[in-house]
Automatic annotation (TrEMBL):
Residues 438-576 form the Guanylate cyclase domain. Belongs to the adenylyl cyclase class-3 family. This is Guanylate cyclase. It holds the Pfam family Guanylate_cyc. Keywords: Membrane, Transmembrane, Transmembrane helix. Signal peptide: none annotated.
Length: 637
């Protein structure tokens, strides 16, 4: 039974992830919002350009107009020659207004700040004032809020000069300002800024330029979002110049103006006059325009178009409750994924959930105009996938290591590693099966008398030490050749080649005889070591048999061992007696000798009756170094 404390300890990484994500949301809400807003930009760009509603036109002071104006020194028209230097005389805008209204426009907003007297003299302002008075209240001029920082911070409002303001009438200004997010991108509607600063500047603070233009045209304006806590964002229609744009030069040059008026293109249009030329530096980062920048006049035109469509892309402020909920949901997703053991399955599942949440967020933005915070949840799901799959990987590695250590007691390291690397198949590999194996058994000659002698002289610890040293050499020789140590029986060791990992019988026989010869060499080295210390040598026999056995984990619920059962084991036990009788060290059954072929020189010890089997020839290794065929010596009856 898993206690609460153990469960918490096991799930420490997942719970910590939930705390971290919830903490990030609480401590860094603006960074979370920027992540969401950046996705909104990507979603808008992925959706692609949209159709702009009818009724909006930008009259742009563009690069073409500035180039044309700079080359008017030889023009026959005196008013055009005055355009050679920026800023242009204000009487030029009076001309533009006259011509726009002559073309039948509804209302005009000028995205230029006339907060100081004209550098061309009072008469220049007077010409524009006359035009403004003629078309009021259908003209809106720009105003701007200055934000001072430092020890004495505050806000101040810049409007058109008193002469122009008087001719304009009341409430005919529109703010140029807009909120800029921490990454330098303008996303909020400019009128949101106007509403915010009005709390400090008072109720007479102008609305945004776009909203003021809508009011001048007597069109409906939605000032407030229907849902509390949701922020209306601009929803751009595409890259710069997506909103219909005319060069101001088309209104200034007589022939172009005549053609424009004749076309009726400007009839019933809301017109914004403003700079788009790069040199005039009124470019801002927005969706679709991160590099080149979008002209400020087009930002205001976007707000107008959104208002006309009744469209709002709504974005929620992240509350502390949302951050906590985000942490909890990430933990729940990570816990739910734990029903799958495989790390890649967990990672793939939670990655798919993260991708699904992003797709759902895209659909909400594109179809409903809502950004509901699924991006941060998607990032959390991906983080949960990484943590959960990492935990599963560590658990799997720990299981493999534990399985390898457990199997290492009786399997060779290579075989143990092979099984540990596929633990899900370990039960099949180690389960009961019928298989052909080569059995190897070692036994020490006269070990009983040696034990009695050591016991009488009080050297039992030394006896155990020698026996452990001997078995260590036996096990290493067997493991190096892929054998499996089955058990130790007193001074005897039993091993098999061919279980639990099956190779060809010839390969197993070759590995077994090599292990037997290696054991013989290792005992020779041990004997030399013991002789140097004045201790007696040991003599051994190593026997090999071949046959079909039952292999598998056998035992009780509390203790199990991997072992083999069958005639091949019994044969090995009986071959041991033959080896001692014939005074041979390495002895094998006839089937093993046949599997070895002509790779070793074997001595035929004769024909022996083996209980439970028919009589068969028994063989011994005669020489380790020479490779000749079997020596068919006379049979022993």
């Amino acid at each position: 039974m898993v206690t609460k404390g153990k469960w918490i300890k096991r799930q420490a990484a997942v719970l910590s992830l939930g705390v971290v994500i919830g903490g990030i949301g609480l401590l860094y809400p603006s960074q979370i919002e920027l992540l969401e807003l950046a996705f909104v930009d990507a979603a808008q760009e992925l959706r692609g350009p949209r159709r702009v509603p009818d009724g909006i036109t930008i009259v742009a002071i563009d690069d073409f107009s500035l180039q044309q104006a700079s080359n008017t020194d030889l023009s026959e028209r005196r008013d055009l020659r005055s355009l050679q230097h920026w800023p242009w005389p204000r009487k030029i805008y009076a001309t533009v207004l006259d011509r726009l209204f002559a073309c039948g426009v509804k209302a005009v907003a000028v995205d230029l700040l006339f907060d100081s007297p004209s550098i061309y003299g009072p008469n220049d302002d007077q010409v524009l004032a006359v035009s403004l008075k003629r078309f009021q209240p259908k003209v809106v001029l720009a105003a701007q809020v200055l934000e001072s920082r430092g020890a004495v911070g505050g806000l101040s409002l810049l409007r058109a000069t008193p002469a122009l303001s008087a001719a304009l009438g009341t409430n005919q200004h529109g703010l140029l300002n807009g909120f800029q997010d921490a990454d330098g991108v303008i996303r909020q509607r400019p009128n949101t800024y106007a509403t915010t600063v009005s709390k400090s500047l008072g109720k007479n603070t102008p609305l945004s330029l776009g909203v003021a233009l809508l009011q001048a045209a007597e069109l409906p304006v939605e000032h407030h979002v229907k849902w509390d806590g949701w922020l209306p964002l601009l929803d751009p229609y595409g890259p710069p110049r997506t909103i219909p744009t005319l060069s101001i030069w088309q209104l200034l040059e007589p022939n172009s103006y005549a053609a424009l008026k004749e076309s009726g293109q400007l009839r019933d249009q809301l017109v914004l006059i403003g700079p788009t030329a790069t040199s005039l530096q009124d470019l801002h980062q927005t969706a679709f325009a991160r590099g080149a920048g979008m002209p400020g006049v087009e930002v205001h035109a976007t707000e107008i178009a959104n208002q006309i469509e009744g469209r709002a892309l709504l974005f929620p402020h992240k509350s502390p409750g949302w951050s906590l909920l985000l942490g909890v949901m990430v933990v729940l997703m990570a816990l739910a994924s734990q029903r799958w053991e495989r790390p890649l399955t967990r990672l793939g599942l939670l990655t798919a959930i993260a991708a699904g949440l992003l797709l759902l967020s895209l659909l909400f933005i594109a179809l409903l105009g809502l950004e509901v915070g699924l991006v941060s949840l998607s990032a959390g799901a991906l983080a949960a996938g990484v943590i959960s799959s990492a935990g599963a990987t560590l658990k799997l590695q720990w299981q493999k290591r534990r399985l390898r250590q457990s199997l290492g007691r009786y399997l060779s390291p290579a075989v143990a590693a092979e099984i540990a690397n596929q633990p899900e198949e370990a039960d099949d590999i180690l389960g009961g099966r019928l298989t052909e194996v080569v059995v190897l058994m070692t036994d020490i000659r006269s070990f009983t008398s040696f034990t009695q002698s050591m016991s009488e002289s009080g050297q039992v610890p030394r006896l155990v030490e020698r026996l452990n040293l001997y078995f260590s050499e036996v096990v290493e020789a067997i493991h190096q050749r892929g054998g499996t140590v089955d058990k130790f029986i007193g001074d005897a060791a039993l091993a098999v080649f061919g279980a639990p990992i099956k190779r060809s019988s010839q390969v197993d026989a070759k590995a077994a005889i090599e292990a037997a010869l290696d054991i013989e060499k290792r005992l020779a080295k041990l004997n030399q070591h013991w002789n140097n210390k004045g201790e007696k040598s040991w003599e051994q026999v190593v026997v090999l048999s071949f046959g079909t056995v039952i292999s598998g984990n056998i035992g009780s619920r509390s203790r199990m061992d991997y072992t083999v059962i069958g005639d091949a084991v019994n044969t090995a036990s009986r071959l041991e007696k033959i080896a001692k009788q014939s005074n041979q060290t390495v002895v094998m059954s006839e089937e093993v000798a046949q599997l070895l072929g002509d790779q070793w020189t074997l001595q035929n010890l004769g024909l022996y009756e083996i209980r439970g089997q028919k009589a068969q020839h028994v063989y011994a290794i005669k020489s380790v170094h020479s490779k000749v065929k079997f020596l068919n010596e006379s049979s022993k009856e």
